[in-house]
Design goal:
GO molecular function, one term: metal ion binding
Number of helices: 6
Strand content: under 5%
Keywords: Heme, Iron, Membrane, Metal-binding, Transmembrane, Transmembrane helix
Largest sheet: none
Distance between the termini: 62 Å
Order of helices and strands: HHHHHH
Organism: Turneriella parva (strain ATCC BAA-1111 / DSM 21527 / NCTC 11395 / H)
Radius of gyration: 21 Å
Protein name: Cytochrome c domain-containing protein
Number of strands: 0
InterPro entries: Cyt_c-like_dom (IPR009056), Cyt_c-like_dom_sf (IPR036909)
């Protein structure tokens, strides 16, 4: 039985659909949402850190993750206390963009920074 052009197109279309679904899964669109525990807040905070101006001056998120895995200090050495950290970010001129992000993103970012 010869392989027809129509069969080749069907296989190609199926591969495109599988690739598209895989891309959506990888992007997080099709993955189930996580609940609001500390771990997911910290993960969301890493996304906020990586997608805002933080990496203009600070290490990239993947570098911080590697340092954390090795037990090395990352971003914060002194301001681990949540209140002190929030006060610093709200009042320091170099961190003015902290006030421009949503309250949920600020909370997630603080959870992430506390772990660094």
């Amino acid at each position: 039985m010869p392989f027809t052009e129509r069969q080749a197109l069907r296989i190609f279309a199926l591969l495109l659909i599988v690739a598209f679904v895989g891309m959506l899964w990888y992007a997080g669109v099709l993955r189930p949402a996580k609940t609001g525990d500390d771990a997911s807040d910290s993960e969301k905070g890493e996304e906020v850190y990586a997608s805002h101006d933080c990496t203009d001056c600070h290490l990239a998120a993947h570098v911080l993750r590697a340092k954390s895995a090795k037990g090395e200090p990352g971003l914060i050495r002194v301001r681990k206390d949540e209140k002190t950290l929030i006060d610093f970010l709200q009042n320091d001129k170099r961190h003015e963009t902290f006030l421009l992000i949503s309250e949920n993103d600020r909370r997630s970012l603080v959870e992430y920074l506390k772990r660094q």
